[in-house]
Specification:
Layout lengths: L1 H12 L27 H13 L1 H6 L4 H27 L4 H6 L2 H21 L3 H28 L35 H16 L5 H19 L5 H19 L4
């Protein structure tokens, strides 16, 4: 009887064993996600845009001051330095080979191919999480593109390549003539960097359990940004602004919790 009582107490004090399962945990729990599908895409995009354009209201309520301060202070400092650092890239031929590889067309094509390939791979392997990651990347890029076009139409900033090598690099704002409204007339901020960081933020956040993914994602985005400076398509401040805005919109709007 004593032995039986001891065995009973041992069973009661031992933690309950979980039933065995073959299912692998997803990188992010489904409960942390809002509904994601192509059918839900227009509704999610509309909600994103509403939150985006009501951002000043969020600031007034004391929210998101950190990314706002980073954008204002960092961009302002780099704008002040643009006339000093940009003429070097305007004159040098050092990066010609790199610029041919990382051209505007090649980087844009790469940013389109990577999410599309991920979606196709997820579709082929019936990986719903992978498909949703690609959909979120598309949503983040589209969200950023709307703001980017508006800001470029307002700023109408010249690109460094529009300025002679020994020209005035400080007088660049509101100088470019307006073009097609859906393209964006100016160079501020960088659309390539906007999209690159948006995609990188989605991948890094969704696959943060793989330590190498954030390094690769943001590293590739950094190469895109550097290529925009060496090719003299953008000032460093344009690239920085695109990076901060792309990350902030993706992190606080597209990847928000429901």
């Amino acid at each position: 009887m004593a032995l039986g009582t001891a065995d009973t107490r041992a069973e009661q004090s031992s933690p309950a064993r979980e039933p065995a399962t073959d299912q692998q945990p997803s990188p992010q729990a489904p409960s942390e996600e809002r509904p994601i599908s192509w059918k839900q895409f227009p509704s999610n995009f509309a909600q994103d845009q509403k939150r985006l354009w009501l951002f000043p209201k969020s600031l007034a309520q004391g929210k998101h001051w950190e990314p706002a301060a980073a954008f204002i202070l960092g961009t302002g400092a780099l704008v002040a330095l643009d006339p000093q650092d940009t003429p070097y890239f305007r004159r040098t031929q050092t990066f010609n080979g790199f610029n041919r590889i990382a051209s505007s067309r090649n980087t844009a094509a790469s940013m389109a191919i990577v999410p599309a390939a991920l979606y196709a791979f997820g579709l082929a392997h019936r990986d719903d999480y992978m498909q949703k990651t690609a959909q979120l990347a598309a949503e983040a890029v589209l969200d950023g593109e709307v703001l980017n076009v508006v800001m470029r139409d307002i700023s109408r900033r010249l690109s460094p390549r529009d300025i002679p090598p020994n020209g005035d690099f400080s007088d660049t704002w509101f100088r470019r003539q307006k073009g097609l409204f859906y393209v964006g007339s100016g160079g501020f901020p960088s659309g390539h960097m906007f999209a690159a960081v948006s995609i990188a933020a989605v991948f890094a956040r969704r696959y943060s359990n793989h330590r190498w993914v954030p390094w690769v994602a943001y590293g590739l985005a950094g190469i895109v940004g550097f290529s925009r400076v060496t090719a003299t398509d953008h000032f460093p401040s344009d690239v920085f602004a695109g990076a901060v805005l792309g990350y902030a919109i993706t992190r606080y709007d597209v990847l928000r919790h429901p």
